[in-house]
Amino acid sequence: MSKLDKDQVIEKFTEAYKSAHGKTPTVEAKGGWYSIDGGKNVRLSALEEMTNDLVSSGSDTKTVEKKPSKSDNKVATKSKTSKKPKGKSSFSVKDYWQEKIMAQNPGSKLPR
């Protein structure tokens, strides 16, 4: 494994990021970790991989960013529909306890 020159890697990443996104990124370095635009902290080798991805994909990054958001919406709607009961059982814990309390103490009030 070769040693990476941090200045060269950051410079190449900045150029690739600027060409892909149209703006210069803010790169913060803390103890060997690098944060891009206040995002997740990554190591220098991951920064180099991100540079290669930006260079190879070019302007395709905008379409890649749009696709996950659509799939996230589909996943969210699927999870909402899967949480609904499908009519298998009409048992309710709340109703069970209300019936139990009223059976034990016929004149009592139910809790809020």
List the helices and strands and how they pair.
Layout: H1 6-21, E1 27-30, E2 33-36, E3 41-42, H2 44-57, H3 61-83, H4 93-104
Antiparallel strand pairs: 1-2, 2-3
Q: Would you kindly provide a written description of the structure presented here, covering whatever features stand out?
A:
- There is one protein chain.
- With 112 residues, this protein is mainly α.
- The protein has 4 helices and 3 strands; from the N terminus they run αβββααα.
- The protein has a 3-stranded antiparallel beta sheet with strand order 1-2-3.
- Helix 1 runs parallel beside helix 2.
- The longest helix is centred in the middle third of the chain and has 23 residues.
- The radius of gyration is 27 Å and the shape is rod-shaped.
Profile the largest sheet. 3 strands, antiparallel
Oligomer: single chain
Strand order of the largest sheet: 1-2-3
Measured between the Cα atoms of the first and last residue, the distance is 66 Å
Cα-based radius of gyration, to the nearest Å: 27 Å
* Secondary structure: helix percent: 55-70%
Q: What is the strand content?
A: 5-15%
How many distinct beta strands? 3
User: SSE order, as H and E?
Assistant: HEEEHHH
Rounded average pLDDT:
76
**Outline type:** rod-shaped
The number of helical elements comes to 4
Descriptive terms for the model:
three-stranded antiparallel beta sheet; mainly alpha; 4 helices; 112 residues; 3 strands
In short:
Helix content is 58%, strand content 9%. It has four helices and three strands. The chain has a three-stranded antiparallel sheet.
